[in-house]
């Protein structure tokens, strides 16, 4: 969830400082930028990418699929779609750590193009992740609060269609952001450089302001309100469910189904809580700051806070793997089986390679024995055929 100016902040060192700005705030900004964008951000993006790859492998695994019922499978499809969006965010955000801090390039190459358009690309996946979380909350709200109606409303095909629609809508809404920045060519002392500079959308300030307002409503306000309403009801229903389980003696099958519902709902609630803790502050800061001052390129106090909140936002897209490990026993078992199987395969390969290296004659003997066994099986098959059908 982001406004149309989301990007990993890169500010010109040559900009003149405001009179009220102290040298200390600029030094702090430089140090925070170096540590968080130089070391923290690439580490988080790398861990997040591989964590989301593991999420995809395990969520598509047979163990997880078999343990789910109809409504849970719809939630699982949404979790897979959310994982794809988070993985794409980590993948597209990682190159930003290699951008020059002053956003000045010697060539109009790939990195300059990326610096110009990365804000739009990253925004697409942020909005996608936000609205996928909203759709998951909506499904869980219907499944938990209206279980009788949910069977007619929630289906795998409808969930897939909604997820695809969210991706398409996110791309369409963020198309204008591709014109938010431009590459300016500057020539000084016979040296040509290329600068990434912000610009007013389509040279129309009214359109620019209206678009920002629409983005704030669709990408921030509406999702926040829906998430608060749906998840407040979900927490209330889970509390009632635990109270009823203490008072009533239910069948083991019913308890198992209820525990599956609660587990998936708790996973979603954890994702939403992390969203409000790690993502919402960044978006709130940017919208409030733009209302008071549209030119923040030289406000180093704001830029320092923005660096911290952007890193927090990145953690949100990298931490779902930890949530699944903590709250989902089936996910943990699947992950354990995956690593155990990989370890067993690696050990078997190492043992075979070591045996061949220490005693190559055994490998030749095994190969010759395999060929002899194959020949003897063919010969026996031929003799049996002759006995039955006569010689050809």
If you had to describe this structure to a student in words, what would you say it looks like?
The chain has 392 residues and is mostly helical. It folds into two domains: 23-327, Up-down Bundle (Rhopdopsin 7-helix transmembrane proteins), CATH 1.20.1070.10; 360-392. The chain contains twelve helices and three strands. The chain has helices at residues 23-59, 62-66, 70-93, 110-145, 147-153, 156-173, 205-247, 252-292, 300-316, 320-327, 329-358, 360-389, and strands at 104-105, 181-188, 191-198. A three-stranded antiparallel sheet has the order 1-3-2, with helices on one face. Strand 2 and strand 3 (191-198) form a beta hairpin. The chain is globular. The N and C termini lie far apart (77 Å). Residues 10-18, 363-367, 369-379 and 381-392 have low confidence and may be disordered.
Which helices and strands appear, and what pairs or packs with what?
Elements: H1 23-59, H2 62-66, H3 70-93, E1 104-105, H4 110-145, H5 147-153, H6 156-173, E2 181-188, E3 191-198, H7 205-247, H8 252-292, H9 300-316, H10 320-327, H11 329-358, H12 360-389
Antiparallel strand pairs: 1-3, 2-3
Helix pairs in contact: 1-3, 1-9, 1-10, 3-4, 3-6, 4-5, 4-6, 4-7, 4-8, 7-8, 8-9, 8-10, 11-12
**CATH architecture name of the largest domain:** Up-down Bundle
Number of helices: 12
- Global structural class: mainly alpha
Major pleated sheet: 3 strands, antiparallel
Classified in CATH, the superfamily of the largest domain is Rhodopsin 7-helix transmembrane proteins
Spatial gap, N to C terminus: 77 Å
Organism: Ridgeia piscesae (Tubeworm)
Main location: membrane
InterPro entries: GPCR-Ligand_Int (IPR052954), GPCR_Rhodpsn (IPR000276), GPCR_Rhodpsn_7TM (IPR017452)
Domain G-protein coupled receptors family 1 profile: 51-324
């Amino acid at each position: 969830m982001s406004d149309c100016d989301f990007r990993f902040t890169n500010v010109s060192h040559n900009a003149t400082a405001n009179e009220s700005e102290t040298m200390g705030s600029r030094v702090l900004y430089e140090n925070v930028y170096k540590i968080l964008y130089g070391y923290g951000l690439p580490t988080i993006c790398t861990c997040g990418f591989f964590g989301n790859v593991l999420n995809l492998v395990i969520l598509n695994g047979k163990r997880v699929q078999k343990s789910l019922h109809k409504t849970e499978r719809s939630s699982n499809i949404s979790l897979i779609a959310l994982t794809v969006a988070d993985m794409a965010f980590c993948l597209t955000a990682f190159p930003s750590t290699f951008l020059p801090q002053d956003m000045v390039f010697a060539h109009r190459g790939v990195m300059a193009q990326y610096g110009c358009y990365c804000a739009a690309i990253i925004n697409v996946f942020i909005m996608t992740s936000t609205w996928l979380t909203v759709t998951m909350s909506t499904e869980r709200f219907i499944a938990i609060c209206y279980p009788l109606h949910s069977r007619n409303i929630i289906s795998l095909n409808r969930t897939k269609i909604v997820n695809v629609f969210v991706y398409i809508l996110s791309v369409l809404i963020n198309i204008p952001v591709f014109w938010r920045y431009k590459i300016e060519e500057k020539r000084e002392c016979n040296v040509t450089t290329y600068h990434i500079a912000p610009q007013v959308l389509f040279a129309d300030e009214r359109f620019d302001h209206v678009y920002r307002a629409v983005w704030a409503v669709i990408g921030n306000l509406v999702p926040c309100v829906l998430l608060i309403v749906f998840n407040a009801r979900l927490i209330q229903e889970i509390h009632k469910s635990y109270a009823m389980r203490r008072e009533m003696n239910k069948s083991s099958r019913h308890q198992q189904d209820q525990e599956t519902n609660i587990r998936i709902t708790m996973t979603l609630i954890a994702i939403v809580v992390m969203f409000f803790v790690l993502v919402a502050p960044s978006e709130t800061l940017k919208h409030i700051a733009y209302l008071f001052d549209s030119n923040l390129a030289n406000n180093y106090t704001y830029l320092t806070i923005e660096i911290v909140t952007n890193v927090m936002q990145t953690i949100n897209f990298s931490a779902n793997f930890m949530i699944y490990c903590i709250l989902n026993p089936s996910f943990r078992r699947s992950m354990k089986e995956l690593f155990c199987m990989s370890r067993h395969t690696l050990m078997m390969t190492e043992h075979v390679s070591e045996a061949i290296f220490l005693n190559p004659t055994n490998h030749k003997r095994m190969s010759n024995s395999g060929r002899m066994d194959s020949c003897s099986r063919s010969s026996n098959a031929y003799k049996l055929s002759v006995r039955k059908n006569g010689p050809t």
